[in-house]
What does this fold into?
Amino acid sequence: MKRQDGFPDDFLWGCSTSSYQIEGAAGEDGRSPSIWDTFSHAPGKIQDGRTGDIACDSYRRWRDDIELLRGLNAGAYRFSVSWSRVQPEGRGEPNQRGLDYYARLVDALSEAGIEPWLELFHWDLPQKLENEGGWRNRETALRFEEYASIMYRHIGDKVRHWTSMNEPWCAAFLGHLTGEHAPGMRDRIAANRAAHHLLLAHGFAVRAFQQSGLKGEYGIVINPSKPRPATLRAEDIAASERASIERTSLWLDPLFGRGYPKYFMERFGADMPIEARDMEIIAQPIDFIGVNYYNEEAVRAAPESIENPYGVESVRTWQKRTEMDWEIEPAGLRRILEYIASTWPRKALYVTENGAAFPDMAGPDGFVRDYDRIEYLKEHISSCRAALRRGVPLKGYFLWSLIDNFEWSFGYTRSFGIASVDQATRNRQPKLSYYFYRDLIAGFAL
Ligand code: FCB
It folds into this structure.
């Protein structure tokens, strides 16, 4: 079979989604609320005031999603499991109907020749656990181990690729420091505690997987960033280094057994609820790192404040921007991959999310010709090829996203899909970019 030029034969092409963003069926078959149900129902938190109650209705329409993936000839599908669907109490007995949903999904994917990439946590913590302190509470990491073990026991023989969680930086800092995400707190100590307990939860889940005797590859998905200094003034360079500690080293250093960065511990060590052996648990060996990349950013030094403990601010850049107001900087993807590959021990890397929101206007024929998105994808995938040429051990690329979905605090006002979802019927319709990605996977688009 022909392969895309410059990519190894076994390079994996896939698409990503997440449970709260697509499933809907929020109150069905025994699912209990997650912190995102609570947050999206609270007035003023979501730009269009909407929720994930129905979302893309993938809980019912998952066959349509698989059809889209088949049409692309995608090698893998990265989706996440709703914890409160499979363990509504956040502890104890699993909910069989919830487990059945994921078992059916995974079986159907495998039958279609699409490798299921199962992610245990994409931010939708059971509200019951939030009521007991959520990620601020160490106990939640133990509950996560129990939940992970349920998944291993029930569908562990069907899944070969596991990730513990998505972007713990967002869950900790957007959730507890800036308050943009659930649970909407603004408290630095809470954010730092959450960061530690998220990493600890990851470590517990990896250890339980190893003890289960199951076969498979295990990883974690982060959203690393190494912002450019806006100028070469010493204070701006130092600011960019602090930003990259918060966004990258804070996660990769402990995962690779280096402990938390020195700068971080000097400043915030007193916030951290580290107990004996925690750092060892966090550093359980894993097989790959998932990298989500959308943009790069330029930064300069700024006064420190409660919400800006690192004293860093973003400044205007010259690049074109997406509808998220994120700069389009394809070379930044190569730079971050190279940075990771050259700074931490060599480990397989996957781009687990990359994509863009644009104001997709359907033509009179109802078809979305999203040339902006195609250009974005083309340039970023070329940047992956450049990283490969420079020796980065990049093994695959997942596009965000298969379908338009609930974009967190932006509700449905931002679309990342290569297929749209009709808001009345929930029918999926491929956009032009869908056919671009199909051609790319077949080896004809770069
Ligand atoms: C990432 C999230 C994903 C999606 C994209 C646009 O931070 O992991 O769920 O919302 O951004």
User: Anything to note?
Assistant: The mean pLDDT is 97. Residues 188-212 form the longest helix (25 residues).
